[in-house]
DNA sequence: CTCGCATAGTCTTGTATAAGACACAAGACG
DNA sequence: CGTCTTGTGTCTTATACAAGACTATGCGAG
């Protein structure tokens, strides 16, 4: 006699709850049912449910607050910043970037983009070029590439102001895209003339090149981001445990 | 009526077990007592003990194997490599480095070293200069700085061969130093003449500069390591979750 | 008799349940 | 402005059974 699903029950429950969040059944910021209620509905014990919830919390999909309830994590720009933005100044303090959009376009994915985003070559992607400004100085030049299928309408009238970062957050919330994980490849490169112009630095200045691929809670690749960081006054901080 | 220790019981138990490992009470690779026995000895329920053990396992301090027992993690060079070594080749595959020691010395800590290692300026440190070779080519030039107080005798007759990495692992195991966490600051820099000589690259080549501080299970700073990685054929892979 | 091997026994950690005491938050009420 | 009540998540205990891993036993083949 073999079970239909060999995974532990708490993993199955985790998957069920994950689906409900991804599918928009429970929306961003919304409170989940109380634990006893939810456990009863799912037909599992409170302990098993709590174990599943603990795993979801570890993945930052939900937030639990004693006495208040359990909530689907709201993806504000501050939240995403704290979780994924690793630039620090030389004193080790987090830095608050301003954003300046320098260009937006839509077109077929290049071979490189398609491979990274797991698309077929030629599928439509949106591209956003922007610079990020720390303490008045431009320090990052980056290009964000998004699968158009996941962000319909993003190509439309887009204010060249810094709104774009907010729009981006809005799209994630509205489309059930909950960012969960990023994989990054880091290397060093020399500033090209284009980089030098954007970053206001001499040609050839060593830059930290960050190639990031981001995944959502459904396991989809949602973004490719290539950033060039001028590290003369900043560092990229990573913790390994 | 306030409790003497407001932390949850499972956290207190975790701290007790952590101490036993750090103090060498339970040695590297050794099996812990079985759960029921240990729970009885500590006067807590099996569930509470298991919760503490789960936390220790997450920190890689112990390893649990169903049917066999629970063991203090043994710090082999392979284990440390898998956990802390993030260099990949362009295909994304982990790379197996050879190591070549280029110099060993002992002396008073510089201001910079003292600050990073949390020592008083002038306290004795060991310094190991070495290069790391991937697929026949030298790709990393690095200096490791260790507090002499934690590694007594390391200054003595040291084979210039690649033994040093093994010796280093041995010292950690022998002195209750269990590496648990690293903090890294990444930036880009241009190869100096010294770098160029070691790495066999042109002067000015952009290098990935990695400044790493490593902590052990007792919360001590155990190592400062400054590495310069030639990223022409390799990447530094990081995952953010 | 000895070797090989299946298997039962027993020790280990892993999973799932249940129940009760506790702590925190928010609103109702005096 | 306190105090109470209610609803929430958190901690701790206890029990039972499942599953992995090793050991010993014993039986049969040679």
Write up what this structure looks like.
Chain A is α+β, with helices and mostly antiparallel strands. The first copy, chain A, has 2 domains: 9-72, Winged helix-like DNA-binding domain superfamily/Winged helix DNA-binding domain (Arc Repressor Mutant, subunit A), CATH 1.10.10.10; 77-236, Chorismate lyase. Helix content of chain A is 29%, strand content 35%. Chain A is built from 7 helices and 10 strands. In chain A, strands 4-5-6-9-8-7 form a 6-stranded antiparallel sheet. In chain A, a hairpin with a 2-residue loop joins strand 5 and strand 6. In chain A, helix 1 packs across helix 3 (46-58) and helix 2 (35-42) crosses helix 3. The relative contact order of chain A is 0.13. At the A-B interface, strand 7, strand 8 and strand 10 of A face strand 7, strand 8 and strand 10 of B. Strand 10 (234-240) of chain A pairs antiparallel with strand 7 of chain B, so a sheet runs across the interface. Chain B binds a DNA duplex (30 and 30 nucleotides) through helix 3.
